[in-house]
């Protein structure tokens, strides 16, 4: 699959190569014009006309020097967490006369990092690239992978590499203590929302938000009602406690929040359409609670209504505003897959 319509594997997955989630570049044969770290940035690549550094034109991505001998360049990326890879996006944005003519990708599962004895599995055969465009490719192999190796032929620049996949849930960590089932690194994903004008991608990210742009924020609501967001949990589970963090939201935090949940095991069809239409009728497990500015709110004990195992939650904010992080702590249910 080449550049064109966004493929289905980009929905319901996370970018395992996201620097914001913890992915990092660990090796490159060459990075003369642009460091490997730029290729893993979450933000879209930008172009800065007339900007040069000591090596030449500043480009927003990983870029090697012009190869003058045989062979090709490659880079190794440690994924944010081991996972099952569904597909790749290799974006050559702003690389017009200096993009690679082709790329290939391999993967490995090496918890302690790859070495000379590591066996690499082909995930993408050599595939053509073009200038200044995103290129989408299906993953050719199943299994768990912790690292990917991007080969570019023969040299050049890649603005962004995105590895779309599903994190592997560490079930051993959930045997005794409740775990955060909404966490992106466990497999939690946003499947639908009423409004995300200022962004929502970091609501399930690790750590606390670093600024007001690091979370979910809606536009100002000018009609009756309230805003909401639906999260698919990493696994079917019973919920014990809920954390709503309004870090950095001071003049625009929601007045209150509530939470509903449902078990959608076995549901087929267009899930975003389904939850948009039906989630308002899900069981309420957290009645409306007041929120405060720039604060971690923990709801547990008698506040959280006990429910059967669920796979999805809907966070309602009244009437609008911003939430930095949502955490849903619970215990895995029998056969606890979503």
**CATH superfamily caption of the largest domain:** Galactose-binding domain-like
CATH topology of the largest domain: Jelly Rolls
Q: Helices and strands: which structural class?
A: mainly beta
What's the gyration radius in Å?
A: 21 Å
CATH architectural designation of the largest domain: Sandwich
Total tally of structural domains: 2
Q: Overall pLDDT, averaged?
A: 95
What share of residues is helical?
under 10%
CA-based shape: globular
Cα end-to-end separation: 28 Å
The CATH class of the largest domain is identified as Mainly Beta
Biggest sheet, open or closed, and with what strands and sense? 8 strands, antiparallel
Poorly predicted runs: none
Tell me what portion of residues adopts beta-strand conformation: 35-45%
Compute the number of strand runs: 22
Order of helices and strands: EEHEEEEEEEEEEEEEEEHEEEEE
The number of helices is 2
Characterise the protein shown here.
The chain has 338 residues and is mainly beta. It folds into two domains: 8-167, Jelly Rolls; 172-332, Jelly Rolls (Sandwich), CATH 2.60.120. It has two helices and 22 strands. It has helices at 36-39, 271-278, and strands at 14-15, 24-28, 52-53, 56-57, 62-63, 73-91, 102-108, 121-128, 134-138, 144-153, 157-158, 160-167, 179-180, 189-193, 216-217, 227-245, 256-262, 283-290, 296-299, 310-318, 322-323, 325-332. The strands form five sheets. Strands 1, 2, 6, 7, 8, 9, 10 and 12 form an eight-stranded antiparallel sheet that branches. Strands 13, 14, 16, 17, 18, 19, 20 and 22 form an eight-stranded antiparallel sheet that branches. Strands 3-4 form a two-stranded antiparallel sheet. It starts with 13 loop residues before the first strand and ends in a 6-residue tail after the last strand.
């Amino acid at each position: 699959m080449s550049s064109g319509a966004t493929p289905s594997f980009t929905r319901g997955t996370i970018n395992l190569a996201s620097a914001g989630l913890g992915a990092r570049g660990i090796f490159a044969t060459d990075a003369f014009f642009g460091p490997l770290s730029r290729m893993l940035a979450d933000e879209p690549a930008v172009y800065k006309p007339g900007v040069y550094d000591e090596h030449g034109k500043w480009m927003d991505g990983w870029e090697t020097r012009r190869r003058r001998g045989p062979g090709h360049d490659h880079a190794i990326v440690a994924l944010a967490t081991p996972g099952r890879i569904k597909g790749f996006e290799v974006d050559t944005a702003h690389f017009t006369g200096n993009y690679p003519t082709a790329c290939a990708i391999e993967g490995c599962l090496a918890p302690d990092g790859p070495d000379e004895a590591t066996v690499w599995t082909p995930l993408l055969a050599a595939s053509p690239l073009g200038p200044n465009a995103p290129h989408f490719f299906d993953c050719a192999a199943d299994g768990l992978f912790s690292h990917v190796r991007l080969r570019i032929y023969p040299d050049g620049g890649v603005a962004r590499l995105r590895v779309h996949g599903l994190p592997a849930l560490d079930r051993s960590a959930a045997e005794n203590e409740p775990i955060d089932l909404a966490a992106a690194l466990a497999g939690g994903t946003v499947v639908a929302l009423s409004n995300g004008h200022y962004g929502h991608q970091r609501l399930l990210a690790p750590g606390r938000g670093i600024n007001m742009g690091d979370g979910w924020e809606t536009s100002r609501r000018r009609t009756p009602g309230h805003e909401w967001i639906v999260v698919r949990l990493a696994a079917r589970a019973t919920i014990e406690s809920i954390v709503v963090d309004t870090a950095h939201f001071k003049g625009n935090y929601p007045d209150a929040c509530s939470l509903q949940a449902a078990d959608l095991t076995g549901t087929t069809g267009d899930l975003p359409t389904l939850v948009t239409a039906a989630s308002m009728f899900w069981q309420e497990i957290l009645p409306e609670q007041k929120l405060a500015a720039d604060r971690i709110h923990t709801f547990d004990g008698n506040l959280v209504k006990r429910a059967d195992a669920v796979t999805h939650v809907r966070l309602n904010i009244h009437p609008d505003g911003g939430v930095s992080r949502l955490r849903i702590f619970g215990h895995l249910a029998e056969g606890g897959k979503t």
